[in-house]
């Protein structure tokens, strides 16, 4: 695991190259009056602090502003407040860049977009000195790890970013800690393997709603949405451990699917639902 010190950039790298490395289309950078040769210096892009596509966002952050706590690398800031402060001081250009970054954060949160980070090292402008020069980046690198928004206050703009992929918003009965009964009885059963990846895909497909009654799952104390994953053709009957055979149900409907009087009709309905969800586009 890398520490904050490991992430300190030591190479001069161009913004355009890192934006491209992150997977963004940079072809429009070349549409610049000085010609495509100057694409890297296109002011429409090269000074931006945040980039955005339909699939992801990329932020430029100072290494010096990152912190490390309990092995976790974080960045706490309020770019909206900074933007307003710049405007008050007549620093319109900086204010606009900060404002745009805040909008990118809001959209990243709203659309649940994955986040990449360009880590910057250099001379950071002293915000308390109104005559100070603009910040100057000396070195930068593209962090290989994704980041995610742990907290964003829509009202104030206060933001807390954490290095690493976002934890799943969903959980099922297998991801909760198991509680041991007080009087333990030894039970030997053959537990068939359920792949975490399959359950995760099924939960994401359901998007937090029971696929039988459409009711949203409840929210756990950790803020995740709880639904139970259910193999429509049971593993014991050689049903495949594949998302094409797994639905997410509310706890009530899961019990019903196993023990209810209507369990056979329910199974037919769920199989039809899965067939419809995963039908190949060419079949339509
Ligand atoms: Zn239900
Ligand atoms: Zn089940």
From TrEMBL:
<dbReference type="GO" id="GO:0004519">
    <property type="term" value="F:endonuclease activity"/>
</dbReference>
<keyword id="KW-0378">Hydrolase</keyword>
<dbReference type="InterPro" id="IPR002711">
    <property type="entry name" value="HNH"/>
</dbReference>
<dbReference type="Pfam" id="PF01844">
    <property type="entry name" value="HNH"/>
</dbReference>
<keyword id="KW-0540">Nuclease</keyword>
<protein>
    <submittedName>
        <fullName>HNH endonuclease signature motif containing protein</fullName>
    </submittedName>
</protein>
<feature type="domain" description="HNH nuclease">
    <location>
        <begin position="197"/>
        <end position="255"/>
    </location>
</feature>
<keyword id="KW-0255">Endonuclease</keyword>
<dbReference type="InterPro" id="IPR003615">
    <property type="entry name" value="HNH_nuc"/>
</dbReference>
